[in-house]
Every structure is written in C-alpha cells, then in structure tokens.
Predict the 3D structure of the following.
Amino acid sequence: MLSSDIHPALKRALEARGYEQLTPVQEAVLQPGLDERDLLVSAQTGSGKTVAFGIAIAPTLLGEAERLAPSPQPMALVIAPTRELAIQVQNELEWLYADTGARIASCIGGTDARREARELNRGAHIVVGTPGRLCDHLSRGALDLSAVRCVVLDEADEMLDMGFRDELEQLLDGAPAERRTLLFSATIAREIVSLAKRYQKDAARVDTVSGAKQHSDITYRAVVTAPQEIERSLVNVLRFYESPTAMVFCNTRMMVNQVQAALLERGFASVAISGEMGQNERSRAIESLRSGQARVCVATDVAARGIDVPALNLVIHASIPTSAETLLHRSGRTGRAGRKGTSVVMVPFSQRRRAERLLSLAKLNASWDAVPTADAIAEQDAQRLLEDPILTAASGETDDALVTKIAETHDAKALAAALVGMYRARLPGVEALRPVSIEAPRRERGERSERAPREERVMAGQWFRMGVGRTERADPKWLIPLICRLGGVQKREIGSIRIDQEQTHFQIADESVDRFKSCLAGADADEVTIEASEAPQGGHYGARGRNPGEGKRFGKGGPRGGAGGGYKGRGGAGPNRSRSEGSRGGRPPGDGSSRRRRP
C-alpha cells in the first residue's frame, strides 16, 4: 500500500505503473517535516532516486493543486551528469507527472540547441539537462531561472568527478536564493559536503546507505587469469554465465576497442560505447541492448554513466577498478529492484593482492574462481538447454501437422541430436586456456620486494629444463617472458638460469612449483617442452645467483658481452659465443628475414 503522503496525482501514476511499495530512499524523502526543506541524500545506484526526488519536489511545485498552471519560466531544474541519464530522468518524470499537466524539456549535448531553445521559449515546468548545455542556454538567455523553486543535482558525486564544478556553481548562482536544493549522491565525499554547505540551507541529511549491506542482491566473484589472456578468459566467463544482457567495463578506450573486436570475432552480439562516439551512435548502441539485438556492452566508466539497461544480470570488470567506489558503482548496475545479479572481477594473478585490497576496502566478500573451462561451460550449456522453455511450451495448433510429420519421419534420438546441434550452433565459441592456480602467492617473512635487483637474490627452488640453448641463441632477455607465459609465474619466482649449448636449466621458487606444473600441463602441443630436471653441475649462468662451479656472481654483463651473459637486457655472449652476438643482447645477427623463430 502506497503512502498517503504522496501527492494524489503522483500516487495515481505510481499505482498505474504497478508500484505496490516504495523503495527505502523513496520512503525516506516522505518523512514528516521534509516537504519544504533542502535535502542531502545518499543512496545506492539503482535505488529509485529519480522517483524519489520527483515525489520530494511535488509539494513545492503543486501544493494542493491537482494540475500545474502554464508557466513561461521553469519551476524546477534537474541537473544530471550525462546525456543518457538526463534522458532517463526526463522519461521517468513524464510518466510520474502525467496527470499534472507538467511540460518537461531536456537540454543535453549532442542534440539541436536551437530546437531546445524553441522548446524553452514555449514554456516548460521542469527542465532536465547536462551541466554544459544548461550553461550554454543560460549564457545565451534561452534559459531563465528566475522562477525556479527547486534545483535537483542528480549523482552530484559523478558531476564533480567529471569536472563540472564550475558549471554547477554557475547554475546554482543563477537560481533564486529562496529555492529548495536537493542534492542526490551515491557517496558523500568532502567535495559534496563543501558544495552542500555553500548552496543549501539547513539541509536534512537522508542516508539510506550507511549500515545497509552493500548490494545484497549481487554475487561477487574474482576470476584469476593469466595477464596476457584477459580477453580469452573474458570469452569463457561470458559463455559460462550466459546472461541475457551483460556489461563489460574497461579502464581505457583502447581496451574497449580490443575487447569489442575479440568478442565480435568470436560471435558475440556486442556493442561498444566510448567517449569518442557521437550521440546518435550511442543511442543506437543503447537501443540495441534494450531491444535484445545486442547482449554485451563494452564500455569505459565515463561512457557508461547514466546508461540504464533492463535485465542486466552480469557485470564484468575486465580491468580492475581504480577504487572501491568505482567497483561498487559499476557493480550496482546489476541486482536492481530485487533482481539477482553477478559481478565478476577479472584478476591477473600478478595483481592478486591489489584485487584483495580493493575488495576489502569495498567491504565485499568475493569467491575466488579459476577461468571456466570448456567442460564446465558445456555442462552449463546442457543444463540451460534442458531447462529451456522451448522444451516445455505447448506447440501451437498451426504446428501440429508439421510436428506430427517430423515425429513420424525421424526417431527420438535423431531429433534430440538435431536439437542439440542447432542449440550449439548459435553459441559463441569457447577458448581452450591453460589452467592458472587461484591460490594467493605466498611471501615468506623477510623476502625481498620484487623490485629488489634480481641478481642479488638466491632462492631455494626446483630445477627445470627446456630444449633451447646457445645453438638456438637462447638469452634470458626472451627466455624469461617465455617461462612466465608458459608457466603462469612472475619474474621474481624464477631463480637462477643456466644456458648450455643445447638446453637451458632454470629454477622455479618452491612455493610456485605446483602452479607452474599445472600451467605447463595445459600448454599447447607446439610449444617448447619444459620438464623437471636435476640441478646442473658447473657451467655458466645467464641470470642471478652464484655459479656453483666457479663461485662467481653473474648478471651484470654489458653490450660487449662477457662470461655469464647479461640478464638485465644487455646480455653478453657466453663462453662459446662471439662478441658480435653478445652485443646484440642474444639476438641473431643480420636482418629480420634471416632470424630463426624463437620458441
């Protein structure tokens, strides 16, 4: 039952929309004594803030009247950080105020400013817009704020983060001093408090976040992957969860383009949204998501602000968020209005500790998982097919004849095989990935930082060997990345390296051996072979550590070579190599056409 404190015209609109109960933030703004006060409201993303401030400003705009009289100047101004959010707010207010006769205009970038000016000139009760475009109209005299009774700042923290403080101050200074100011924000940071103190009078603090469980309808998962296989791992995560709509967040535009290209190549119906796109392109991309033509949206944080996609069940952080607030804000796009959602953080194993700190700061508990395997995805596909409504829905009368004919022509097993084949044919492919351990790397007490000079460390570890030596012009400069890639380890987990004529021996730290072996087990058949070995005797080393045969420390080297080679990228020639080879850092002489392909 809806509260009787809601204005009757708005209450009818809510009931027609199917509202039976208000959200916490909507109920909070209806508390006695708040109907004429300034409000400083903090609420989670997706908590119904638009309807909340629509209800909150109704007493100021309507009073006891059922409908609004024509007004040549706006009575309320709503400022939003992005075009998409401004359009969303306008659409929400239009149905909420449908019975009041309110005219609602929008002023957003990327649209015809002259058309907006004509609409303002005809008169609008509520104006919704972005800071920059609103300031443009104000400067040109098209926007008159002299009659404004309410100003609403929606997602004020986002607007300050985007650098709109000057525009906000210009708009607030241009409105009458006796107005109401409602400030809505997901977080109340120091900049928000400063803005509130300057422009609000005796504001009532409404907090629906503190003490509440953050995103209780969202399941958090951290998926550990190899750093160089983020995009391929992302493919398997999308296939495993198979959400009707998913959003993938990247930290840069370049990564957005890379991920989008990878998804399209593998058959995903996806769109990309970045700041460099025009308004028409963005609108088409968002509409394809809402209509179901596209199922995955790849975007940066800035580009995705204000995008509201229904049935968004899955959020994937392809890049680790830069802050706990960003993590919560991204994830808050799913799990809305009582629906369940999943938020997946892709964690390169080299950034495990950073991800753990981020989740701790956000006060979230996430389960740590490996990248879904092809077998696990196949099991999910089978379960989804068995539960698909197509198998339980009754066939239409017009199909009965065809159904009967097919059933008489083919046996049940053949029909089932055809169904499975058709189902699998429409699914994007799955990546075959090397297994990566999800165990957190252990740091022994007193262990040196990974920034410490490598040649100064001597570690206890297990020896391995590969069939690549000086004959193949082996050099730590490219052997180290190869070992890291095949074994899923970091540079600091590799100990001494010995390069012989036909093979290379190297150490892996004891605590990393199990992970190293499991990654090797999943290596492609055409990769260089690596296997466990005994500790080598004598010889020369091309990396840190002492040569047990000679008791001499190596690793400095130089462009002119010298015994032991140079690990730090300037590797020298070994005892059987020429100075010309050593001066090239272990690379073959001559032009690129004569070089042998490295493993």
